[in-house]
């Protein structure tokens, strides 16, 4: 009655249903599955920002590898008799630094393609 005075179609008015009818109606389930285009854009932007932030670790890994082998060259120049021991330490540092870079890259791909 009130909706007719405001010239609002009755189909746009709030229709109260019993609780059991609202819970088990098929409208309720299908309405929750739709997302707006704006929400999808925000989600995809967040994915790209997160993946970009995760790939910063790959650059850090490259800097760590360069630092490791640079220190190897300096150490070998100072004491050539420790070549074998210094090289084993350098390889261990390289492996740890490279592993961290690969973990960062794997996390970036998981953010992009798994979520």
UniProtKB/TrEMBL annotation:
<keyword id="KW-0472">Membrane</keyword>
<dbReference type="Pfam" id="PF00137">
    <property type="entry name" value="ATP-synt_C"/>
</dbReference>
<dbReference type="InterPro" id="IPR035921">
    <property type="entry name" value="F/V-ATP_Csub_sf"/>
</dbReference>
<keyword id="KW-0812">Transmembrane</keyword>
<keyword id="KW-0813">Transport</keyword>
<dbReference type="GO" id="GO:0015078">
    <property type="term" value="F:proton transmembrane transporter activity"/>
</dbReference>
<keyword id="KW-0375">Hydrogen ion transport</keyword>
<dbReference type="InterPro" id="IPR038662">
    <property type="entry name" value="ATP_synth_F0_csu_sf"/>
</dbReference>
<dbReference type="GO" id="GO:0008289">
    <property type="term" value="F:lipid binding"/>
</dbReference>
<feature type="transmembrane region" description="Helical">
    <location>
        <begin position="45"/>
        <end position="74"/>
    </location>
</feature>
<dbReference type="GO" id="GO:0015986">
    <property type="term" value="P:proton motive force-driven ATP synthesis"/>
</dbReference>
<dbReference type="InterPro" id="IPR000454">
    <property type="entry name" value="ATP_synth_F0_csu"/>
</dbReference>
<keyword id="KW-0138">CF(0)</keyword>
<feature type="domain" description="V-ATPase proteolipid subunit C-like">
    <location>
        <begin position="49"/>
        <end position="111"/>
    </location>
</feature>
<keyword id="KW-0406">Ion transport</keyword>
<keyword id="KW-0496">Mitochondrion</keyword>
<dbReference type="InterPro" id="IPR002379">
    <property type="entry name" value="ATPase_proteolipid_c-like_dom"/>
</dbReference>
<dbReference type="GO" id="GO:0031966">
    <property type="term" value="C:mitochondrial membrane"/>
</dbReference>
<keyword id="KW-1133">Transmembrane helix</keyword>
<protein>
    <recommendedName>
        <fullName>ATPase protein 9</fullName>
    </recommendedName>
</protein>
<feature type="transmembrane region" description="Helical">
    <location>
        <begin position="86"/>
        <end position="114"/>
    </location>
</feature>
<dbReference type="GO" id="GO:0045259">
    <property type="term" value="C:proton-transporting ATP synthase complex"/>
</dbReference>
<keyword id="KW-0446">Lipid-binding</keyword>
<comment type="similarity">
    <text>Belongs to the ATPase C chain family.</text>
</comment>
<dbReference type="InterPro" id="IPR020537">
    <property type="entry name" value="ATP_synth_F0_csu_DDCD_BS"/>
</dbReference>
<dbReference type="GO" id="GO:0033177">
    <property type="term" value="C:proton-transporting two-sector ATPase complex, proton-transporting domain"/>
</dbReference>
């Amino acid at each position: 009655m009130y909706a007719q005075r405001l010239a609002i179609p009755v189909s746009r008015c709030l229709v109260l249903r019993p609780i059991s009818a609202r819970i088990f109606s098929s409208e309720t389930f299908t309405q929750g599955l739709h997302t707006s285009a704006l929400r999808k854009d925000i989600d995809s932007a967040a994915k790209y920002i997160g993946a970009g932030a995760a790939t910063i670790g790959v650059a850090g890994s490259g800097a760590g590898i360069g630092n490791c082998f640079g220190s190897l060259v300096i150490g070998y120049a100072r004491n050539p008799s420790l070549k074998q021991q210094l090289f084993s330490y350098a390889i261990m540092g390289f492996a740890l630094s490279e592993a961290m870079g690969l973990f960062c890259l794997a996390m970036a791909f998981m953010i992009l393609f798994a979520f």
